[in-house]
Task: inverse folding
């Protein structure tokens, strides 16, 4: 029960002691976000700075740890985003604008994802979308329009690339692994015992899975550059539509197995494996896909470790395309139905003879087929927040990652986990004296520890306690680290289960 008189001076009662004060502040911040959406870009940037000074301290309060300060946590990422959006960048060439995005611009896109991911309710998410509307969408539009102008004058970055087979002993294909996600994931993985290199490439056009996926595969040179177009899917040199069945057959023909799980690995062949559903989530859930990113990161972590545990020493991670995410929805570019031969959200084939001022570029797998592209961040269909297939840095500049283990593989670590209430008993094997064990909510974040950290003396049974009962039924990880804090092993669990 909050007292009516909070006192003042030396006798003031600390604000962070009372949940009512935090709740009132969250409601005030929600209204401020909604009002920020009505401001000019410069005024909105200034307003976010003021709100950060006022509400940033609440992220250190206990209520933030208990999930009651989500807007204050989102504000942190909005502040980063607004600060970076106000910085100038060079747009004189494709190289300069892409260099800006690779080094700085991607952080703006990822800040949007993080800000939205902090929102657990629809009401909070709508408030953050409103705060983004006056600054993020205009920045994204300007960046994309300028990039399209540069591409229009210099289309060779897309028209002059040639198919070349992707080669590695193990290729891991991650669906729609956009550059900002890949960059952040690699930054987190540097805390592990891996050598990681990330580079970028341009997708073939349009930036759709049927067109792009074979280009970044071991069968790129077996695809006909005189293909007949069928939903932007090319044909093999043997004149077969590159359906999933024929794609797998072509992989087999060049010595690659296509296992669906680690238990199906073929020891005598190279491996092509696919994981991730970000594109599916994006189309089905729109901006709600932001809540799937940690899930994807955990899946990649798990799969990479499994690959190295299986004896492979090098993994090549490839993807097909990126995507645009415009909170609140993209503007619609009207395209009369009687002008269209084939249409996807951000690209279309117009009927012969139809006049158009839209940017046209050839389909990668047959240069005689011209494709029209939506201008800026617009959309040819109904208003949606998630889309790809167009021409933007977010859709077309994609990562290629090489990961190698450093030295000999670690001894396999095993854990048997048993919960009794909030007490977790772990039978650990394969560890050395000095290794440590703890429970985290995020295995990559050492600050997310929810138990005491215990040192291990070797193979033993150890008990870990969760002192905060609010964590019961929460997803968590049992994490073992070496003396330097490098994660050696993790096991997902549910507190109290």
Result:
């Amino acid at each position: 029960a909050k007292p009516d008189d909070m006192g003042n001076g030396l006798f003031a009662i600390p604000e962070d002691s009372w949940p009512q004060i935090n709740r009132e502040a969250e409601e005030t911040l929600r209204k401020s976000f909604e009002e920020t959406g009505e401001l000019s870009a410069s005024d909105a940037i200034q307003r976010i700075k003021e709100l950060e000074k006022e509400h940033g301290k609440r992220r250190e309060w206990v209520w933030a740890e208990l999930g009651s300060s989500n807007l204050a946590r989102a504000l942190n990422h909005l502040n980063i985003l607004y600060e970076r959006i106000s910085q100038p960048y060079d747009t004189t060439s494709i190289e300069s604008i892409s260099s800006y995005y690779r080094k700085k611009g991607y952080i703006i896109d990822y800040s949007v994802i993080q800000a939205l991911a902090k929102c657990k309710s629809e009401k909070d998410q709508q408030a953050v979308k409103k705060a983004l509307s006056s600054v993020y969408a205009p920045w994204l539009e300007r960046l994309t329009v300028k990039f399209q102008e540069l591409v229009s004058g210099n289309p060779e970055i897309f028209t002059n690339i040639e198919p070349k087979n992707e080669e590695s002993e193990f290729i891991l294909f991650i669906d729609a692994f956009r550059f900002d996600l890949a960059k952040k994931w690699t930054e987190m993985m540097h805390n592990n015992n891996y050598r990681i290199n990330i580079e970028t490439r341009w997708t073939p056009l349009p930036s759709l899975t049927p067109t792009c996926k074979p280009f970044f595969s071991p069968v790129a040179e077996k695809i006909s550059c005189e293909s007949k177009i069928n939903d932007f899917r090319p044909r093999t040199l043997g004149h077969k539509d590159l359906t999933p069945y024929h794609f797998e057959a072509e992989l087999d023909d060049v010595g690659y197995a296509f296992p669906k799980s680690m238990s199906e690995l073929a020891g005598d062949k190279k491996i092509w494996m696919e994981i991730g559903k970000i594109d599916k989530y994006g189309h089905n859930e729109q901006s709600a896909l932001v809540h799937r990113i940690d899930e994807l990161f955990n899946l990649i972590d798990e799969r990479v470790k499994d690959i190295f545990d299986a004896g492979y020493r090098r993994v090549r991670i490839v993807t097909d395309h990126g995507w645009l995410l415009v909170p609140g929805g993209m503007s619609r570019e009207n395209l009369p139905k009687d002008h269209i031969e084939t249409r996807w959200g951000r690209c279309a084939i117009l009927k012969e003879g139809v006049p158009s001022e839209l940017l046209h570029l050839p389909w990668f797998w047959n240069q005689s087929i011209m494709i029209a592209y939506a201008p800026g961040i617009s959309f040819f269909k109904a208003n949606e927040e998630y889309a790809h297939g167009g021409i933007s840095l977010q859709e077309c500049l994609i990562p290629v990652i090489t990961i190698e283990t450093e030295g000999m593989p670690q001894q396999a670590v095993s854990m048997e986990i048993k919960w009794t209430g909030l007490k977790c008993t772990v039978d650990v094997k394969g560890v050395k004296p000095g290794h440590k064990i703890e429970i985290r909510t995020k295995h990559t974040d050492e600050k997310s520890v929810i138990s005491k950290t215990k040192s291990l003396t070797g193979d033993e049974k150890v008990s870990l306690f969760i002192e905060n009962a609010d964590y019961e039924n929460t997803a968590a990880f049992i994490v073992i680290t070496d003396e330097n804090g490098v994660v050696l092993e993790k096991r997902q669990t549910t507190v109290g289960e």
